[in-house]
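task queued by scheduler; priority normal; single chain, no ligands, no partner chains; default sampling; output format set to structure tokens
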Amino acid sequence: MTVRVWLFAVAKELAHADFVEIDLPAGATVGLLRKRLPECCASLGPLASYVLFAVDRQYASDDTILRPEAEVACIPPVSGG
């Protein structure tokens, strides 16, 4: 299945794109998505272990199973004051 992952903030800037598409096997989890993110877009590699993922507008853990039609967002950590 192909999962479209919407990018925000610094992830969007690093990838120079609004989203990336990642091929995953059926029944894949957010954890596998996290591992495959740098393979899809090498510039996102440094963020992969720090980003949060939301699936269908709810924060998701690494064991969340992805569906092909799920809305997935990659949310990097933010800083500021």
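post-processing summary
- The first strand starts at residue 2 and ends at 7.
- The mean pLDDT is 93.
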